[in-house]
What does this fold into?
Amino acid sequence: LIIHIHDFELIDHLLSSNLKKIVSHWRSSKLHPRETNQPMLRISMLAVKTGDWEKQLPSYVPDDELRLKLSILPLKINLDQDAAYFMVDFISKIGQQDTDTKSDRNSADASTNDLKPKIVIPSPDLEPDMYFQSVTVSSVKIKIDYHPKRVSLDGLKQGNYIELINILPMEGLT
It folds into this structure.
């Protein structure tokens, strides 16, 4: 299986943001020229047969081992303060919903486990777990431009030292 994605971009649609693209290809003909038709993202997965699976019973499902290769062209990340805060807030809410859902499921399972015994019957058409023989990720060059908008002095007073990053813009961090 080979997947090529020629170009991808993460677009910023926040009304308070002045930037257009958050993540895109870092174009630089001097530092790292892009070859013609080179994909921005390339995923290659090869299944390797192991053992004498042909001599097994007809119902035997062979255990394939996988070799995965991932390569990404250089990335440029443009962040302003509002977009960075939005992403941190969004990701923390997703994580919180994940833990809330798991705890709800566990409490529901605990209440139903008291009422009925749990019997697990293995299905004959279960496929084996995937096993990665090797995973190769090429090195990725990343350039980060961060554009702060305001500094919270109250946050600094309360010990939130991440506010120090909002004092000066950072461009060209690699």
The chain has a mean pLDDT of 78. The CA atoms of residues 157 and 163 lie 10 Å apart.
